[in-house]
Specification:
The protein is globular and about 45 Å long. The protein has helices at residues 13-24, 31-40, 44-55, 61-72, 90-102, 120-125, 165-188, 201-213, and strands at residues 2-6, 27-30, 81-84, 109-114, 127-130, 135-138, 192-196. It has a single domain (2-203), classed as Rossmann fold. The two termini are 12 Å apart. 30% of the residues are buried. The mean pLDDT is 96. Strands 2-3-1-4-7 form a 5-stranded parallel beta sheet, with helices on both faces. It has 214 residues and is an alpha/beta fold. The structure holds BIS(adenosine)-5'-pentaphosphate and zinc ion (ZN). Zinc ion binds next to helix 1. The site of BIS(adenosine)-5'-pentaphosphate (AP5) has 35 residues, from helix 1, helix 2, helix 3, strand 6 and helix 8.
Length: 214
């Protein structure tokens, strides 16, 4: 299966991805995670992406299309993949269609994490992540066993630099202006399934399961 997850910051894309990945044996390609790793490693890509990310703006289409093109070539992604955070502009969506068409494939399903903006600040400001595994916690909605520490490795958790109420405002603005048109783009193709992303994680997981088995 080739899946796209679309939703505003904090809507649960990164939380549901590992569950879908395990159940369907798909590779998880999250442009935000890849960009953050590039920023941390100070690669040329990371140096170019850093400023836009810290301001909550989108990184240029060319940069992200380049990393997705590269990542999709991995043997583990040939059977199918979950795109988390990509495409985020109509240009990215068109380019993705072109890339897939060349391989004779296409996007099978787009999961729209529909949610009210008002809920997102609490989700974003309470998030803690384990950078190397991508495991995500929340102080209120899914706390780690010991505060500030990853359950599996015992390593410290961190907060993302862009997870402040102020930067969230720009991220939401970018979502409404640049990414919502992508949902319409896929709706015209009849590929979109709506999720009630305001529900607790387990209920959202059940909805995802239903969509993917139908
Ligand atoms: P990215 O990393 O993709 O960030 P985002 O889209 O803002 O999404 P988030 O990761 O914040 O949200 P999520 O939906 O994954 O939420 P999560 O599941 O963790 O992108 C970052 C930046 O990179 C962008 O701003 C841009 O600069 C750049 N970028 C990336 N891709 C790009 C592209 N294609 N083009 C251009 N630029 C790009 O959940 C959030 C919190 O809520 C967690 O603490 C979690 O535990 C909790 N939670 C999750 N689900 C629930 C639930 N159902 N109930 C209660 N709590 C929940
Ligand atoms: Zn995420």
């Amino acid at each position: 299966k080739r899946l796209v997850l679309i939703g505003p910051p904090g809507s649960g894309k990164g939380t549901q991805s590992p569950i879908i990945k395990d159940e369907h044996c798909l590779c998880h390609l999250a442009t935000g995670d890849m960009l953050r790793a590039a920023v941390a490693a100070k690669t040329p890509l990371g140096i170019k992406a850093k400023e836009a990310m810290e301001k909550g703006e989108l990184v240029s289409d060319d940069l992200v299309i380049g990393i997705i093109d590269e990542a999709m070539k991995k043997p583990s992604c040939q059977k199918g993949f979950i795109l988390d955070g990509f495409p985020r502009t109509v240009v990215q969506a068109q380019k993705l269609d072109d890339m897939l068409q060349k391989q004779g494939s296409k996007i099978d399903r787009v999961l729209n994490f529909a949610i009210d903006d008002a809920i997102l600040e609490e989700r974003i400001t309470g998030r803690w992540i384990h950078p190397s595994s991508g495991r995500t916690y929340h102080t209120k909605f899914g706390p780690p066993k010991a505060p500030g520490v990853d359950d599996v490795t015992g390593e410290p958790l961190i907060q993302r630099k862009d997870d402040t109420a102020a930067v969230l405002k720009s991220r939401l603005e970018a979502f409404h202006k640049q990414t919502e048109p992508v949902i319409d783009y896929y709706k015209k193709k009849g590929a979109v399934a709506e999720l009630h992303a305001e529900k607790p994680p387990k209920e959202v997981a059940t909805e995802v399961k239903k969509v993917l088995s139908s």
